[in-house]
Design goal:
Number of helices: 4
Distance between the termini: 38 Å
Structural class: alpha+beta
CATH class: Mainly Beta
Radius of gyration: 18 Å
Number of domains: 1
CATH superfamily: Small protein B
CATH architecture: Beta Barrel
Largest sheet: 7 strands, antiparallel
Amino acid sequence: MPDREDKERDVAVNRRAYHDYFIDEKYEAGVMLTGTEVKSIRNGRANLRDGFVRIDNGEAWLENVHISPYAQGNVMNHDPIRQRKLLLHRKQISSLIGKVKQKGYTLIPLRIYFTRNHAKVEVGLARGKRQFDKREAIAERDAKREIARAVRRG
């Protein structure tokens, strides 16, 4: 049985991302947080829906991610939608710069989780889906569901 520290524990998941985007690659990044942000994330009070990643001067920044203020926090509580620096290797950032400059690609946060008591963000390199792509995905999912029902009935 794996140790308790080795398990990953999802705190927030951006389910909307898989509906609106094709995810081509995934990256794991650390994130610089304040103490009250960590406590609030541990309580599951994070929202990734409108979040995105911006690369500026060789640094990756997580923007528009809402982390609610910690309920027991004092005057030193954090701003809910401040910019947060992502911790990626320099080679990863330079490769992401080239990929994001291609037309139609963007970086979005997919989930926040804890690994060995460190908060991590899974960032996805994504292409936007068009309306007909979404309808196609829904039709494909419905067809798979119908096939599964037919197989169960015999």
